[in-house]
């Protein structure tokens, strides 16, 4: 697909929302078709460019997502679980590609998103970066190569404003490790250690969450056995990499059949 596409950004006042607006403005094949905020937000009714502290760009922040979605080919959504589920249903009505970077989604949320994906393309990933998605592939392969004598720990580092833990990326990596081991993550996940916890259970996949300062997002996958340790690491130094990955996903999804995809599909790294 070579023509320009219109993109709506939800949660536009947030850190990722503003980054997406900036990246869309520089993209040769995209334009900002709409900007959405919750009803009652200070930005509603204002030009998004001036609300961001820059020049006006002619796009007025709205609180009616369906009206915006109906005029766009893609929706990019880094918001909160309840909002994302509602947006998925509306994006499906509009037949717009819905790119989801929201984390903290429950099993019920995921079921509703899957239902929406029967009618439109949904690209959902806990992390949109190329490097992290390569890391998931490597994690799966290393986990498959090493037996349960190697304890697996996923360590994630984020800024002090992040509200969910483990991060969506950490869970992606944990799922990759579990797939490599041929087990269900929910059956071997080890989280929230505190007090007298007893010895670590063989085969468990542990999670540790660190919050501090302005850390964008670092992730380690540690494989530890008697006498040696292997660490796979990804460090994010620029938040724009997540926005650029989301834009890539929005373009990729334009000629795809309805369904739920992830960044491995977008990047051609899926085993399917």
UniProtKB/TrEMBL annotation:
Entry keyword Cytoplasm: yes
Any one GO MF annotation of this record: 4-hydroxy-tetrahydrodipicolinate reductase
Domain Dihydrodipicolinate reductase C-terminal: 131-267
Main subcellular location of this protein, as a coarse class: cytoplasm
All residue ranges annotated as the Dihydrodipicolinate reductase N-terminal domain in the record: 6-128
List of residues binding NAD(+): 11-16, 37, 101-103, 125-128
Swiss-Prot/TrEMBL catalytic activity: (S)-2,3,4,5-tetrahydrodipicolinate + NAD(+) + H2O = (2S,4S)-4-hydroxy-2,3,4,5-tetrahydrodipicolinate + NADH + H(+); (S)-2,3,4,5-tetrahydrodipicolinate + NADP(+) + H2O = (2S,4S)-4-hydroxy-2,3,4,5-tetrahydrodipicolinate + NADPH + H(+)
Entry superkingdom: Bacteria
Pathway field: Amino-acid biosynthesis; L-lysine biosynthesis via DAP pathway; (S)-tetrahydrodipicolinate from L-aspartate: step 4/4
Its EC number(s): 1.17.1.8
An annotated GO cellular component: cytosol
Subunit organization: Homotetramer.
Alphabetized PANTHER family for the sequence: 4-HYDROXY-TETRAHYDRODIPICOLINATE REDUCTASE 1, CHLOROPLASTIC-RELATED (PTHR20836:SF0), DIHYDRODIPICOLINATE REDUCTASE (PTHR20836)
NCBIfam families the record matches: dapB (TIGR00036)
This protein's name: 4-hydroxy-tetrahydrodipicolinate reductase
Native organism: Marivita geojedonensis
